[in-house]
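Hi D.,

Good news: the full-assembly prediction came through. Inputs first.
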Amino acid sequence: MSVRSFATTISRSQDRLIPLLLLPVALIALGPILRLLAEGFGFGQGLTLSHATEVLGRDSTRIALGHSLLTAGAGTVISVLIGAAFAFVVALTDIRAKAALVFCLMIPMMIPPQITALAWMQVTGPSSVLLKTLGLAPPLGSPQPLYSSGGIALLLGLQHASIVFLTLRAGLRLIPADLVEAARISGARGPRVWAQVVLPLSLPSLAAGAAMTFVTALGNFGIPAMLGIPARYSTLPTLIYQRLVSMGPSVLPEVAVLALLIGTVAILGVLANRLLLRRRAYGLVGLSGRPLSLSLGRARLPVEIGFWLFLAAILVVPLAALLATSVIPAYGVPLSLSNATLHAWHEVLFRQPVTLRAYGNSLLLATAAAVILMAVAVPLAWVIARRPSWGTRVIDTLVDLPYALPGVVLAIACILSFLRLPFTQVTLYGTLTIILLAYLSRFLVVMLRPVQAAVGQLDPAMEEAAAAAGARLGRRLRTIVLPLAAPAAAAGAILVFLTAVNELTVSALLWAAGTETLGVVIFSLEDSGDTVMAAALASSIVGLIVLLMGMVQLAAPRLPKGCVPWLD
Amino acid sequence: MAGLSFEGLTRAYQGAPAVDAIDARIAEGEFVALLGPSGCGKTTLLRLTAGFETPDAGRITLGGRVLADAQDPRGFVPPEERNIGIVFQSYALWPHMTVARNVAYPLEVRRVAAPERARRVAEALALTGLTALADRAPAQLSGGQRQRVALARCLVAEPGAVLLDEPLANLDLALRGAMQEAFAAFHRRTGATMLYVTHDQTEALALADRVAVMKDGRIRQFAPPEVLYDRPQDAFVAGFVGDGAVVSARAAGPLTGAGVLVEALGQRIEARAADALPTHLCIRPEQVAITPDGPVRARVASCTYQGGRFRLGLETEAESLVTHSPTRIAVGESLRLAIRHPWAFRDPDVTPLAALQVAEHA
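Then the structure:
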């Protein structure tokens, strides 16, 4: 009897450990956002909205909000046009080399936005090395056409097209072929089938993708920072950045209100996205049958050529321009076979202490975030799947928030939370730790979803068989769940690593001398006129990213379904 | 090996009992099948025994040790300490381990020393005919081979009882026969107490020492296969187990050592019985003889070939019957039948009032 009750105490105390896992996760993932919310309502100065109304009433706020809505809105339209065209053709037709098309379409989203902006700036404008080399450059003194709302919107649109693509493709997959066949048997011809069956059924997915694209474009900092700041064209993220950089932490209450403003708009977008996705699921799931597949017939080759030309235009041209800029001896000099040099590459990769430090910091932060999140995600995914409670449901729902909300919002939230560590005099501001904490909060969901997909596909009988064999919870997790979730966890870790290496927005607000990240350094090199070095550093990062993406792609056949976002 | 017993065992989901006050004893080394339609509670009973579910009321004991007692929740023994082996319908083999590691796992968990472990794994693999496949991954095996790995894995730890959850449901027909023989041979060699869940009566009748027929969370009859077939206790068991017909009947004479005279199909029929006031007759196909001078008239409603004989579905004035015939008989043809030694029983689902009326009529 005593032996038995001892044993059950152990197995219960194992379950009692669950809050010990959930609580820190909730604190790190959601704490900063809640702290920011409190600030907006006059935390520490009595409950008041007067401060908030004052900030919101300013002209600079109204102008920046207007610019943000305009560029994000126009960018979303561009993303929808590109993403929808790719999604319809890739998901519904017999076009060849789909995997390669999708991979290439994903690259712009994986490249840091400030690199995208830098690369496009090398394509256009009077000092474009590419145009000069080809003899097509506009005369010196003519304006850089991308320094405008149109330029910002265009690049936002290119950058986020894959969000629309992924959401819409997933929705199109749900449309069973027999719906279209039924329409054709009823006598409907091609265009009518598209207008009356395919389009209405795919509309919720399209709208959901557009809402998410809008939220992401709204929070984008790299593109408006590179293109807007030189033209004195401010959006909410760049306004927050400029206020904080010029005034320091004393303006925190003010920028907190701005962060809440952009956060509110973003949350509306996220809610629209969730609502639309729920509508999509209704009525279509449960229907079995082949997904829709149409033959392009003789149009196939022209369509293929068109799509690849487009990808070349948005991918190869800017990256070639970036590469060209990185190998010239000085900015403004046209490139020729005789003057090409790897001097800038040598500088950024081996000599400049600041770029070396940035590489070190970024790789350290990305590795630490990936490793810590991997250690947390496997038990967390298991608890959410096998021990559901209100606590796990809250975490499962809200864990998206730090990732979906604009990076500036999270950065401000983290500064507020860790400027004075609660109950101590310790400040984390200006340390790598605060950036790491922000990354843990922001990228938890990137890690968690693939692992959840893997744990969700595990037959619970696998664990029950281990329990019947005598294995306790800890051993079951270690010997059964962990090895089976490991491929997904690895994929998630690479995704976290990729996203963290790319990261600019959060670190732009959190860095201090000595804790620069790659994103910050590219931005400040370009800002101080070292465009050639910025281009060399950016090129090396693009190379690293494509390499990592390629690794995930190659590992794909061994990964469970649904754990790499761009693979089926 | 040890005997297993359930006392007043109850488990409800959202108020609806899935297992309802079950009392049963399974002797040491006995092979018991839980037979019933889907949703009858047989799998819940199995999961309660394994410890994956906790009872709302009642007690489970294995070899005298209380595994679960609703009165004493602290005394609940978790699955990992029950020393019970289980074979899942999906086999639940761990895909990241070889066959040998799958089988060795329970011994690793129990910290059995390596040489002893190797010996017992080899023994278990030999017993299930898997020695040649020891280093394969489960994904490289056929369905029947996976089934045998699951069996080897659960017996290697010498469990107090072995639970099998519809182990043949995922196998094709030809393999099922072979696996049934493998289970029977395995039971003979190990003498394990086995609880076998199935919805397939052929499997249950072929394999088990005793069969518990379940419906709506209760055991309707718990008896050896031949008793279930010959002397079903109620209309559900009579209809669910074995072929044949259940027709209503009323007593027309006193219960004697030989049985009772009943009125059914418009005739007086001599039936075997244990109850003086039967409400139904269970008439198996072999108890219906086609004879030119038989008293019951019937029309052939269906005729299906079953290999070596034909199964005839017959319609009398008010009831349906089943019999076998060595030759094909055209549908629609009229026959005369004699009913010989059917089994008369009182169905508990018929209200006592009806039974009383039947008695008055008699």
